[in-house]
Amino acid sequence: MKIFRPQLSLLMLPLLAGCSRNPNVEIVGSYFPGWMVSLVAGVVLTALAHMLLRRRGLLHSIGHPALMYPAMTLLFTCLLWLIFFA
């Protein structure tokens, strides 16, 4: 004979809170991982930052571009990941 214990199921509910958010994003019927969407948005934000820096005439004041742009992309990607998926 199977005994149902509602108290035990209530104790298990907080453990299911981690399963509430799926880090996949649906785009045109396909699911993409959240990190991939964050990376694309990070590249776009880096391009926008480059255009802003060029308009302000600050391109010469930042560090070496080979280091700055990948660092900016990584920064924007991690920030977007933390804001939307963490």
TrEMBL record:
Superkingdom classification of source: Bacteria
Protein family according to the UniProt entry: Belongs to the YtcA family.
Location (main, coarse): membrane
Protein name: Uncharacterized protein YtcA
InterPro entries: YtcA
Pfam annotation, one family: Ytca
Xref: PROSITE patterns: PROKAR_LIPOPROTEIN
Keyword list, A-Z: Cell membrane, Lipoprotein, Membrane, Palmitate, Signal, Transmembrane, Transmembrane helix
This protein's record includes keyword Cytoplasm: no
Transmembrane segments: 31-53, 65-84
Entry's localization field: Membrane
Topology of this chain in the membrane: Multi-pass membrane protein
